[in-house]
């Protein structure tokens, strides 16, 4: 028995250990993506089925092995459909990693050029949010980063106007036909208003968050944009990036937006792992 155990241990290669670590990191990454959403229950069920398949296979229970095996094999496409938002967020976050940035630099070095965008003028945006906060006028503004929001822009009314404080305030004025929905700002212009956004599936948000906050969280979970939300009830200002909400004062907006614009978030955070 001891000899068999030693032989089995000796046969373990460094690649086998690396394989186990990578699979563990992959499962942790999947859990990190679906944590706090309704998908976590589906994810737990899938893990249970896979573990059950391994157990019944080891016990030579052929009928159960066949049923569970068929479910796992055929259900792969269904899982992509079910986890479409999480898969999109996963691929997006990979695109924001340093590896993807290095690839982008390599392509640029080969002669291809990415479109360079001028620095966004934050002064009229922050000033308008400060005024709307004092007057308790609700607002939802999206600041486009690297990922364009063409599918979101198409749901609203095209504007393509230069950014100005009076225009932003007039759009979100309560009697304005464009005040519902989100405003999209891209390439230093107000691209569209009254845009429809996806609502987050996160079930652990405070009850005080209304549709504006949930829409802002939802769009930032599926893209790298920054959402600015002014509460109609309290006048509070919140900045949202990657589904995370930051409460700020009007005087802190500009610095916080610049801070979040410079950050890249990986698809999971190694610092959050507790050893």
Please give the structural blueprint.
Blueprint: H1 2-10, H2 14-34, H3 39-58, H4 62-82, H5 84-95, H6 98-109, H7 123-135, E1 139-143, H8 150-153, E2 157-162, H9 165-171, E3 182-186, E4 189-195, H10 211-221, E5 226-230, E6 237-241, E7 244-248, H11 253-261
Parallel strand pairs: 1-3
Antiparallel strand pairs: 1-5, 2-4, 3-4, 5-6, 6-7
Helix pairs in contact: 3-4, 7-9
Write a structural description.
The protein has a seven-stranded mixed sheet, with helices on both faces. The protein has helices spanning 2-10, 14-34, 39-58, 62-82, 84-95, 98-109, 123-135, 150-153, 165-171, 211-221, 253-261; strands at residues 139-143, 157-162, 182-186, 189-195, 226-230, 237-241, 244-248. The protein starts with a helix and ends in a 14-residue tail after the last helix. It has two domains: 2-107, no CATH class; 123-261, DNA integrity scanning protein, DisA, N-terminal domain (YojJ-like (1, 3-Layer(aba) Sandwich), CATH 3.40.1700.10. The chain has eleven helices and seven strands. The longest helix is centred in the N-terminal third of the chain and has 21 residues, at 14-34. Helix 3 (39-58) packs antiparallel against helix 4 (62-82) and helix 7 (123-135) packs across helix 9 (165-171). The radius of gyration is 24 Å and the shape is elongated. With 275 residues, it is of the alpha+beta class. Residues 110-117 and 266-275 have low confidence and may be disordered.
């Amino acid at each position: 028995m001891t000899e068999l155990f030693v032989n089995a241990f000796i046969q373990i290669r460094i690649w086998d250990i690396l394989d186990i670590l990578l699979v563990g990191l992959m499962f942790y990454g999947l859990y990190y993506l679906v944590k706090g959403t309704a998908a976590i229950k589906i994810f737990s069920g899938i893990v249970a089925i896979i573990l059950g398949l391994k157990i019944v296979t080891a016990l030579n229970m052929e009928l159960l092995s066949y049923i569970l095996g068929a479910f796992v094999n055929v259900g792969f496409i269904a899982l992509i459909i079910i986890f479409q938002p999480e898969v999109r967020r996963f691929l997006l976050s990979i695109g924001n990693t340093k590896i993807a940035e290095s690839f982008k630099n390599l392509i640029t070095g080969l002669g291809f050029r990415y479109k360079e965008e001028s620095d966004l003028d934050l002064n009229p945006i922050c000033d308008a949010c400060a005024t709307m906060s004092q007057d308790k006028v609700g607002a939802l503004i999206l600041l486009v980063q690297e990922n364009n929001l063409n599918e979101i822009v198409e749901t609203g009314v095209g504007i393509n106007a230069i950014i100005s404080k009076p225009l932003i305030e007039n759009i979100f004025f309560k009697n304005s036909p464009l005040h519902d929905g989100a405003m999209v700002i891209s390439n230093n212009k107000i691209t569209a208003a009254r845009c429809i956004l996806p609502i987050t599936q996160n079930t652990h948000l405070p009850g005080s968050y209304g549709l504006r906050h949930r829409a802002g969280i939802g769009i930032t979970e599926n893209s790298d944009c920054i959402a600015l939300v002014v509460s109609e009830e309290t006048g509070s200002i919140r900045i949202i990036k990657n589904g995370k909400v930051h409460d700020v004062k009007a005087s802190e907006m500009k610095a916080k937006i610049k801070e979040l614009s410079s950050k890249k978030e990986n698809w999971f955070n190694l610092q959050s792992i507790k050893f």
